[in-house]
Specification:
Ig-like_dom_sf; Ig-like_fold; Immunoglobulin C1-set domain-containing protein; two-stranded antiparallel sheet; 4 strands; Ig_C1-set; mainly beta
Length: 50
């Protein structure tokens, strides 16, 4: 059994009837060029969570 919801302009969340597993989380830091310019962009990648 799965459940599905759609939010806003089309973001879809599907909940599966399977056991969950802990995600693998990777954080990519800002580049040195961004830090020199007093800006920062962080990217968070989450994978293997179901």
């Amino acid at each position: 059994m799965s459940q599905c919801w759609v939010f806003g302009g089309g973001t879809q969340l599907t909940v599966l009837g399977q056991p969950t597993s802990a995600p693998s989380v990777t954080l990519f830091p800002p580049s040195s060029e961004e830090l020199d310019a007093k800006k920062a962009t962080l990217v968070c990648l989450i994978s293997d969570f179901y």
